[in-house]
Amino acid sequence: MANQFTTVTNQGFFSRLMGSVVGFFVGPILVIAAIALLSWNEGRAVHALNGLGEASHALVEADATAVAPADEGKLVHVVAPATASADIDDPDVGAKFTGQVAVVRKAEIYEWKETSHSTTHDRLGGGTETVTTYTYTQGWADRAIDSSQFKHPEGHTNPPMPISGASWTASDAKLGAYTLDADTLKLLTLTTPLTPDAPDGWTAAAGFLYKGQPSTPAVGDERMSYAGLANGSTISVLAQQSHGGFVPYVAKNGYQVEMARLGNQPAAAMLAEQKKTEGLITWLLRGVGFVAMFIGIAMFLGPLSTFMAVVPLLGSIARGAAGLAAFVISIPLTLVVIAISWIVFRPLLGIGLLVAAAALLYGLGRLHRSRHPAPAIQAAA
């Protein structure tokens, strides 16, 4: 079931101009924030690499059959079958699980969802017209959507979500001779589906427990799905040994190491995977910093394109030119910030990045001069 509403809004030239003037002042603040984020991110990356490097030299391959007092406080790598004999109960639903070391519940509710699509056109005189289409559909979601924030909440009311996602660990969970706690098991991604018997008031269908009609759900209906870690499943844990269990290992620089993976995973592979994850985070934050810088510079140049928008065609050209200028400035500026940050932490690499940024600026300058040569000056007769 879906329905749509269309809203048309107009913005006059002076209102638009005032908005661009605000952007003129907010833009530099956003650029400064981007520089701060990029600098912090490079420090965070080096911090993580150093911490993981220390961990690779400090780890101990522990015997899972006995907790060695000599390994207390050390980073240990333990591989063994996870075991438990106690049942696990879902107290909210009334479902019971046997033969599981851990169980995770995904809760969903059938509710209204809002999507919007906007198209903005320049008008002669510098104003704009924005046409926005709001579409409302029903579907399953694992979080409650606040329908009071919808543009058209009438007829699209969502109830609160009575049951949320959760996870449980068997009270006697062990990894060999080690105690397995809930925090350690939460590091695992459980994918083995479980379908318990349907308690009173629930219906089992297609791997879910439903409260409502599975084939014709209505707004407010609920469904639960479960995944578990079966008794006897082999897992690998890399963490600090503490009182017969596990806690995060804290490197000298404060970086924390605590990992758990399904199957027999060598410690070197687990650390390599974490390095890749840290590298991905670093690049994602670099991307965020670059985008923030680009938006900040574009906002700073906004008043120019707003003035030109008195004639729609000129406004489009000015916006394109401002966007290109912001892009061209953002790339070397981002590289310079990263390079300067690395000079503090990794001087050789930082200097290399700084040279690369300078070369890029030089190349862009030469490209500009080749496409826009200076007019020749003719000598007087």
Discrete helix count: 6
- Compressed to H and E, one letter per element, the order equals EHEEEEEEEEEHEEEEEEEEEHHHH
What would you call the structural class? alpha+beta
Amount of helix: 25-40%
Strand content: 25-35%
What does the radius of gyration come to?
A: 29 Å
Mean pLDDT across all amino acids? 88
Largest sheet: 8 strands, antiparallel
Which shape, going by the Cα principal axes?
flat
Q: How many β-strands, per DSSP?
A: 19
Unreliable spans are none
Give the distance, in angstroms, between the N- and C-terminal Cα atoms.
82 Å
Task: Provide key terms for this protein.
381 residues, eight-stranded antiparallel sheet, alpha+beta, 29% strand, seven-stranded mixed sheet
